[in-house]
Design brief:
single chain; mainly alpha; 462 residues; two-stranded antiparallel ribbon; two-stranded parallel sheet; 20 helices
């Protein structure tokens, strides 16, 4: 018999029972459901709403159920619809009448809301820890390549000389924002809906502040309607995960390019590559490709939940049962992608000589050449045109800017002198870019220090 069967005179149709059930996916909320129920039972006892003896039986029963679930000794039933009713049914079977008193001054509406928030808080902590480790991997690689010159790109065309350290640090900075977005999300979701009941609160003298504090929330939610109908925190979480996956997908795309024969800036370790079933020479960057591909799954979860919530009237609607599967899949996807990607980056072999060779082609020191003329007194726009003519001349004659003789250079402008060759040297082009945030060694070392401080602050908080 279902816990809500009093109003009904017919058994639920089998198809409806299966269609309505969520236990197949919300079973993963068992720990949070039990934690919420224990806090609720303790509060009911303190407030004199249930007896101390009943509360003791409930707490002991829930402790035993938690242990049995984690030992694999409990099988949930679709007849009980969801994790909440499964646990309450098992509790009542074990402790009798006292178990029936647990749901006093509570609804499944506020019960699932508190479970979901508790679960997401825990998951954010775990994802954040993985991402902080990934940032450390990027820093460790960057420290080794503060003088490794490579071409920087715009439009996927060689643009200006940078260092591999600066390129990796760009992603480390993106991940800093991802970490703080998760922290902001955590702060906003850290309000407790328990006690909102179905939608209108309760006539019992409950203490919502006590249950909020016991469950680790900053405060109870301010409005009971909002408490049961809000899923902003899940949408914000999925948005944060989508941005994080977008960042990883961009790095994945570059990793795929870098390990191709056309670039050959890096080699991926055999442990993070796969082969072909027919082409024996192949070494495929499947980890990076899968991260790039799985990004769409996380985007899909975000769009799905936004669509589910877009026209729901207050308060709770059964549509909101659709909030969990996408979130769970996004969590599983992100938690799978970060550590395997970190391992791939940590074990890759970098080829500085190939990066340097690529920097020699594409006239990426053309801006430095224009800056040289500007510093000699020529207006920048005139210098821009002059160097454009030089590049055209080089292309016509199969030369680079560094290959041109001083005589050839001075035919274009008498401002060129012998020191132009130092200005055009790729290492100098990169190292002289010492403006804040630039690729100069002094600047990348400063950037590394900033991110190390960011990581240390969070390690100290842990």
């Amino acid at each position: 018999m279902k816990l809500w069967s009093g109003r009904f005179r017919k058994e639920t149709d089998a198809l409806v029972n299966d269609f309505n059930s969520s236990i197949q996916f919300d079973a993963r909320l068992y720990r949070e459901d039990i934690e919420g129920s224990m806090a609720h039972a303790a509060m009911l006892s303190r407030q004199g709403i249930i007896s101390a003896g009943d509360a003791e039986k409930i707490l002991a029963g829930l402790t035993g159920i938690l242990a049995d679930i984690e030992a694999g000794n409990i099988e949930f039933s679709a007849d009980n619809e969801d994790i909440h009713m499964n646990i309450e049914t098992i509790l009542t079977q074990r402790i009798g009448e006292a178990g029936k008193r647990l749901h006093t001054a509570r609804s499944r509406n506020d019960q699932v809301a508190v479970d979901f928030r508790l679960y997401l808080k825990r998951q954010i902590g775990e994802i954040r820890a993985e991402l902080l480790h990934f940032q450390q991997v990027l820093l460790d690689q960057a420290k080794q390549h503060t003088e490794t010159v490579m071409p920087g790109y715009t439009h996927l065309q060689r643009a200006q000389p940078i260092t591999f350290a600066q390129h990796l640090l760009a992603y480390a900075n993106m991940f800093c924002r991802d970490v703080t977005r998760m922290e902001d999300c955590m702060a906003r979701m850290n309000e407790c809906p328990l006690g909102s009941c179905a939608l209108a609160g309760t006539t019992y003298p409950i203490d919502r502040f006590a249950t909020a504090a016991e469950l680790g929330f900053d405060r109870p939610m301010n409005n009971s309607l909002d408490g049961v109908s809000d899923r902003d925190y899940a949408i914000e979480f999925l948005s944060d995960m989508s941005i994080l996956m977008m960042h990883m997908s961009r790095l994945a795309e570059e990793t795929i390019l870098w390990c191709s024969w056309e670039f050959k800036f890096i080699d991926l370790d055999d442990a993070y590559s796969t082969g072909s079933s027919i082409m024996p020479q192949k070494k495929n960057p499947d980890v990076a490709e899968l991260v790039r591909g799985k990004t769409g799954r996380v985007y899909g979860a975000l769009m799905s939940l936004l669509t589910t919530m877009k026209s729901l009237p207050l308060a709770y609607n059964k549509d909101m049962q659709e909030d969990k599967e996408g979130v769970f899949d996004a969590i599983d996807t992100v938690k799978m992608c970060i550590p395997v990607f970190a391992g791939m980056i940590e074990t890759m072999t970098v080829h500085p000589e190939n990066m340097r060779a690529a920097a020699n082609r594409g006239f990426i020191n053309a801006t430095d050449c224009a800056d040289y003329l500007t510093k000699k007194g020529m207006p920048f726009r005139d210098a821009y045109t002059t160097v454009g003519n030089l590049v055209y001349y080089c292309q016509e004659n199969g030369k680079t800017l560094e290959d041109l003789s001083l005589e050839e250079l001075q035919k274009i402008s008498p401002l060129f002198e012998q020191d132009v060759y130092e200005a055009l040297r790729m290492e100098n082009c990169a190292m002289n870019r010492a403006s804040f945030g630039g690729p100069a060694k002094t600047e990348t070392e400063r950037q590394i220090g900033v991110i190390e401080s960011f990581l240390k602050e969070r390690a100290d908080e842990a």
